[in-house]
Amino acid sequence: MQLLSSSILTPFIIGASLLLTACSGGGSSDSTSSSDPDDSSSSPQWVAGQFASYSTLAEQCSVPLTQQLWLRSWSNDTYLWYDEIIDRDPAPYSVAEYFELLKTDELSDTGNLKDNFHFSMSTEEWESLNGSGASVGYGMSLSLRNASSGVTRLVTVAYNEPNTPASDANVSRGAIIIAVDGVSVEDANDTDSIAILNAGLFPSISGKQTEFIVRDLDSQTDRTVTLTADTVVSTPVQNTRTIDTANGKVGYLQFNSHIATAEKGLYDAITTLSNAQVDDLVLDIRYNGGGLLALASQLGYMIAGDEATNNHIFERTSFNDKYSTINPVTGEALTPMPFYPESIGFNTSLLRSGLSLPTLNLKRVFVLTTPGTCSASEALMNALRGIDIEVIQLGDTTCGKPYGFYPTDNCDTTYFTIQFKGVNDKGFGEYSDGFVPSTNPTVDSEVPGCVLADDFEHALGDTNERLLSAALFYRDNNSCPATATAVARAPARNTFVDPGFMLQDIRNQNVLKNNRILTPSALEQ
């Protein structure tokens, strides 16, 4: 399955003042840039193996070739695997098509593509997401299962956001989308039908009305609801609660995205659990595709506490071999990211900077995961394991992304290309095929825990929900419940059985959430 969001519920965000635009950068050649971008006779030209400094090519938007050459030089300078990019003449391609080619086609040691996280989006859309996670949609996150041999195509609501069109219409977890504007989800197999599904499930403009036939959880009948797309602001931290057990108190926290507004949500949630004096924590990050590494660092500190994190790093990042000691984006010396013990103030209207963070001082944490658990969420797991906090994983293998980037704008488009990788305090960071729950771990990417399928038949935070129930069982028995079983790994991102089925919107939205972001240097010291 692929977890999607009709409102891009798990974007990765940095504060507006931290956006990187028209970054200067390296590379050199005999090529020169025109002082008049409309003068094609003196505009820069593609010469195989020669790369102008991308700072001289930035924001020259009237000539597509110059935009392409900016992308080419920027990629050659900052892309992690720059030497695996084929240096193609951009002439036959549009700007968007050319960017898609500026990445490695090499495979990992296990035969998977090395880079599944290369994409772009309009800067306007990026800025609308920035800070608050605001985007157009209905407020429901969807799990998609594509049709294959003997398997029916299925669209299920994974969760919804509070006070949104979906929640107001009681379209909640476990509901199955049967039809969209009269088109059957199961049976659609032509271009026009697929287009209707795309337009309905993933609206691009506020005010669009879509008719859905849904079958609610535990219902034998279908109902028709009309949802009107609106600007939805995601709530990244939800369902904070304390579970009383015979062996003490267990905190539960649903954390959906490392976006800027999550800082206040996490601060409040951990404060609540600390005041309740919980003995253990179940961290539900099954739908958390990543975002700000600094937030992951803060959460790691809040879980582990000062003593466990003192004199340890959260993550050490490295760039390509052109920049062994210098960050190519900020130009500053590379320094490890610590466990942040104070608030940063990503959104000062919610939480000011400099506040001491609350702590739980735990020696272990139970994490609930799916293939939608990605990037900064994986970095959090890796960092805690790096300081000997026991991590117990319940669910499915995570997405596998020990990489990240700085969003970079040029000519009203923001580009995302892999620029760095990270390792924990022990130097481990090779989990490109994901963290795998295992009853008998034998390699560092295998984590003690249980393989379990996501359970759409219970609400998140319900102690009867399969993953949370397994965590509570494991806590008491140090073993997996009988419900644990083998789960097939979800298909690689952007690989689908049905050609064209929601492909463009999947690329634009599912990939969008699966990333980590480093904030510029002021927040990295």
Automatic annotation (TrEMBL):
Cellular component terms (Gene Ontology): outer membrane-bounded periplasmic space
InterPro entries given in the database record: ClpP/crotonase-like_dom_sf, PDZ_sf, Tail-specific_protease
GO terms assigned for molecular function: endopeptidase activity; serine-type peptidase activity
GO biological process: proteolysis; signal transduction
Pfam family name, one: Peptidase_S41
Keywords for the protein's UniProt record, in alphabetical order: Signal
Signal peptide: 1-22
Membrane spanning residue stretches: none
Domain Tail specific protease: residue ranges: 249-402
Superkingdom as given in the UniProt entry: Bacteria
Protein name: Peptidase
Organism the protein comes from: Shewanella polaris
Lineage: Bacteria, Pseudomonadati, Pseudomonadota, Gammaproteobacteria, Alteromonadales
